[in-house]
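Sample pair:
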Amino acid sequence: NNIQLKSRKAEALVEAKRDGGWIPTMKRSGENDDGGGIHQNDEGTSKRLKSAQRDDDDEDKPEGCSEVLHLNVGGDLTAVLRRTLTSVEGSMLASKFSGRWDDSLERDRDGNFFIDQPIYLFQPMINYLRAKSCETALALPATSPEFESEEVQRDFIRMVEYFGMTPGIFPTCLEMCRGQPETAQMSSCHPDLSVSCTSLCTFILETRGHKRPIISYSIMFGRDVERAQIGWVRTGHFVKKLRPGEHKGVGEEKYSFALDMSRGGLLYEGTFSELEGLTAKQGTIVRCENKGERWLVNGELVASSIALESTFQLPPDLQQYSLIPAFSGRGDWRVVEVELDPYTTDQKATTISHSQL
């Protein structure tokens, strides 16, 4: 009953707090944040918190709420488990089919939930979510849907974006490639991409199971951030294999460039170009835009590799290289936004205009 449910939820939350604190969440661009530090916790704590959240969601569902949803997708009938359709946290589908709004959703004359999308776009998304739900360490990870027709692929990406499903259908992961693993704690998958490290470490952001490259990303500083270097490395040249021990940061190593927030300037393979007014403090958000063309701090443009061409020498054909995001430093960090190229290519990224934070 509801009393027992609330009791279980309260016990789980108390236990999670005692074992390690709250998991930081990913915020969308423009949302307020109190700038609080990132408190890390173990995997058991994370599971207990998620279990408590599920109990909370279950409490809000109407009694007798079906877990098998019968859908009419553009005139074609299909069925899917509610937990499959709502598996991407924070998405429109997760909210729409949480169970709280079932009585107000559009239905056909037979009572099936109606989704105004073609089945050839919607069904591959559902099948991918089903594949993700049964992934194991012994099998290859699920791969995002691809289509032979470029037009269909673009329509699929547009639909995924509309439903807020991009982080789940085209996932991004966080990996450590420099530093001592025992000094760092990290949450490497959506919806939480965050790290807390007590020594200098370097991390990269990579896509998993698809070919849409990252073209822009944003990082928020938590507590005790030092030697903050945020930028890009050239894949295929930069060695991503974990290297413990002392190392150079992003922008200091070969095949890398970065905004150095601690020293106040831009770095390219160790060459430093000073900038004025850069400070790294708790709550600061740094956005790296269009593969190194622009850097913004708290929404203000602070550097452009194009505008600084006379003093900051980058390869003239930089956009032809396959680049991946990378950042170095100590302290608490959280990736708050990742922007993918709208096209599935790992070579030349199309230059598009991006909204500022």
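The mean pLDDT is 79.
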